[in-house]
Inverse folding.
């Protein structure tokens, strides 16, 4: 950072900013120290929250504090070292932001564990969540190390489509259990279950990015103008119709409103970004509203959700309607009792959200104990993650990387919007997890993988010009030259086809 | 715990949370210049990336040949070492020359991807000829390539500092 300021200060005031050959000095801005500082800060906040909960609920510092702090610190440090070694130019904020969210999530889950019997179906989950976070960070490190160049993913465009479809379709064939409350989004192996939709989110983004990169010109240019809108040709509508049908199928067979909305929204956003045609958004909104309206009137599970959204307090009335749910009403009350600055950590009554307080409704608990002020800060953190993702996309130089970064950050943003909108009563509630905060192993692992891919893209995007091997006498490691990997020629061919 | 302590902790925690957000925004603020620089150097780096990617199709872009020519280039002082974009949307972009062909155009796999309405997808190329003299050749572009106001018809040797104009983009060789 400082080196950069110096070089900026010394730049002559002619129009040309960058003096030739700064890269030759080799001291390009690499923000790893900033990242380390932010990471320390991001670790301190959950520790403070942990202490706060302990002081408020037991009157003493919690016993496991040292263990918790060390666990989080080891995970974060491992991730940081991996980034330092394998993605040195990556964005400095993504890792601290994700760490903060993950840490706060674990603390809140631990706090709800402590509510004990007050919470229905309460069994300790914080330890589990910490273990999943460990797996998530391992996934992060694995992706950072093994994914040498994000453009490799482009080779797997259609394979990832198939994999994503299989992952999405799989839960429909597994027997649903009564505890799942209608949504069939899990695959179970004995006591172990995963939520494939979380992973499908990333894999499908890879497919969309690869597909749209090849097809975007056809989609953008071959269109007629009608009433200010570009109408695409019928055959170009094919993909959007297929994805639409698919998300409707998910909605019908797995009764999973959230996943369905996420995938369709993701596709529309990526179409819009790839083609710069507003008409896709118009089409997308019309199709999703139409589809949702039809399914909502037919599917009882979805109808319950819609009723609960339209009148959240009806369930508490003297005559609760049969097709409604009290969850949203409970969450709204907990948000309300939090007020502007909250009740303080460990001092709320979050167990009053009886169902899924640790997973889908964890925002309600945060809203109660941290208040509007704290919730806004959390949303800011989410917003910053998305902003860094979009920024990465702007800086990325290859069209695939651009689309992938946009796709991943919009998937993240859409998920936050769907959950937060559902919990606050803005849109019908959907069963999705708040990334990093909510309890749920698949979600944590998948989101760490998402952050890792974003960081790899940003590493490539922000890497300063590397003088080819001759300028540096010895071959300074093939990893330093992103595009000279064996796959590079294929990709350039893909870009023009 | 006394109520006072808890209230202080509650407010303190919120303050710390927001402090984190503010610090993060500050990092982004300082980063704006960095990424601007990175985007610049990114554009500068862009050529190396697609250049490497494009090597597969450039006969004289084979790594071994490139290395050989780099050595030659180092032996001869006074040879141009950089190609600098002086006008147009990529102004300020620099490409290090290492004996490989530099392609210019709107195609994604060009060494310098021109974002210029008047450029063709494969507009021109700049390469060292047999004698190692840097040469510019128009690749049948629609709007032509101009070397100091002369429209190119044949491959033409390049001198240092003479502007090559493609649409709104101006490029020149530098030492």
């Amino acid at each position: 950072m400082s080196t950069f300021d110096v070089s900026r200060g010394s730049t002559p005031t002619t129009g040309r900013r960058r003096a030739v050959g700064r890269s030759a000095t080799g001291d390009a801005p690499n923000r790893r120290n900033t990242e380390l500082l932010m990471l320390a800060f991001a670790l301190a906040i959950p520790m403070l929250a942990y202490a706060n909960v302990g002081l408020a609920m037991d009157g003493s510092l919690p016993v496991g504090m040292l263990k918790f702090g060390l666990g989080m610190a080891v995970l974060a440090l491992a991730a940081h070292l991996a980034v330092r070694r394998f993605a040195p130019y990556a964005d400095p904020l993504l890792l601290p932001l994700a760490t903060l969210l993950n840490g706060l999530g674990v603390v809140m889950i631990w706090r709800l564990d402590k509510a004990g019997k007050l919470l229905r179906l309460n069994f300790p989950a914080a330890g589990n969540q910490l273990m999943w976070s460990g797996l998530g960070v391992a996934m992060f490190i694995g992706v950072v190390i093994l994914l040498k160049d994000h453009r490799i993913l482009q080779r797997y465009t259609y394979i990832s489509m198939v994999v994503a479809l299989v992952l999405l379709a799989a839960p429909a064939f597994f027997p649903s259990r009564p505890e799942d409350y209608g949504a069939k989004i899990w695959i179970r192996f004995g006591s172990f279950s995963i939520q494939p939709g979380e992973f499908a989110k990333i894999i499908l983004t890879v497919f969309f990015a690869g597909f749209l990169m090849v097809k975007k010109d056809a989609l953008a240019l071959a269109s007629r103008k009608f009433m200010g809108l570009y109408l695409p040709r019928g055959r170009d509508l094919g993909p959007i119709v297929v994805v639409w049908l698919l998300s409707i199928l998910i909605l019908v067979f797995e009764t999973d409103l959230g996943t369905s909305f996420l995938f369709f929204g993701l596709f529309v956003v990526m179409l819009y970004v790839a083609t710069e045609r507003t008409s896709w958004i118009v089409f997308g909104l019309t199709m999703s509203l139409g589809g949702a309206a039809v399914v909502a009137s037919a599917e009882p599970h979805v109808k319950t959700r819609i009723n609960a959204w339209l009148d959240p307090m009806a369930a508490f009335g003297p005559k609760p309607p049969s097709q409604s749910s009290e969850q949203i009403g409970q969450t709204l009350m907990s948000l309300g009792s939090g007020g502007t600055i909250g009740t303080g950590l460990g001092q709320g009554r979050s167990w009053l959200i009886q169902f899924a307080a640790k997973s889908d409704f964890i925002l309600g608990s945060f809203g109660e104990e941290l208040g509007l002020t704290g919730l806004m800060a959390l949303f800011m953190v989410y917003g910053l993650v998305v902003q860094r993702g979009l920024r990465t996309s702007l800086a990325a130089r290859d069209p695939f990387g651009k689309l992938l970064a946009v796709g991943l950050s919009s998937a993240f943003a859409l998920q936050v919007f769907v959950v937060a909108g559902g919990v606050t009563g803005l849109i019908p509630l959907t069963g999705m997890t708040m990334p990093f905060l909510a309890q749920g192993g698949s979600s944590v692992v998948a989101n760490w993988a998402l952050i890792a891919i974003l960081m790899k893209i940003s590493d490539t995007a922000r890497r300063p010009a590397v003088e080819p091997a001759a300028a540096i006498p010895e071959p300074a490691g093939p990893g330093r030259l992103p595009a000279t990997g064996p796959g590079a020629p294929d990709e350039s061919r893909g870009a023009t086809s | 715990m006394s109520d006072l302590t808890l209230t202080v902790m509650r407010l303190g925690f919120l303050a710390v949370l927001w402090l984190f957000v503010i610090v993060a925004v500050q990092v982004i603020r300082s980063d704006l210049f960095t990424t601007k620089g990175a985007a610049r150097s990114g554009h500068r780096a862009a050529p190396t990336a697609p250049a490497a990617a494009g090597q597969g199709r450039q006969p004289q872009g084979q790594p071994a040949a490139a290395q050989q020519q780099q050595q030659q280039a180092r032996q001869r002082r006074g040879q141009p070492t950089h190609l600098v974009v002086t006008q147009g949307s990529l102004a300020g972009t620099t490409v290090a020359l290492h004996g490989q062909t530099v392609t210019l155009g709107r195609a994604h796999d060009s060494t310098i991807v021109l974002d210029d309405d008047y450029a063709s997808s494969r507009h021109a190329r700049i390469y060292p000829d047999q004698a190692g003299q840097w040469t510019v050749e128009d690749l049948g572009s629609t709007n032509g390539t101009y070397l100091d106001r002369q429209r190119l018809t044949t491959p033409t040797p390049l001198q240092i500092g003479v502007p090559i104009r493609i649409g709104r983009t101006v490029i020149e060789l530098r030492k």
User: Anything to note?
Assistant: Chain B touches chain A through 62 residues (CB under 8 Å). The two ends of chain B are 72 Å apart (CA to CA). Chain B has a mean pLDDT of 75. Residues 11 and 166 of chain B are 61 Å apart (CA to CA).
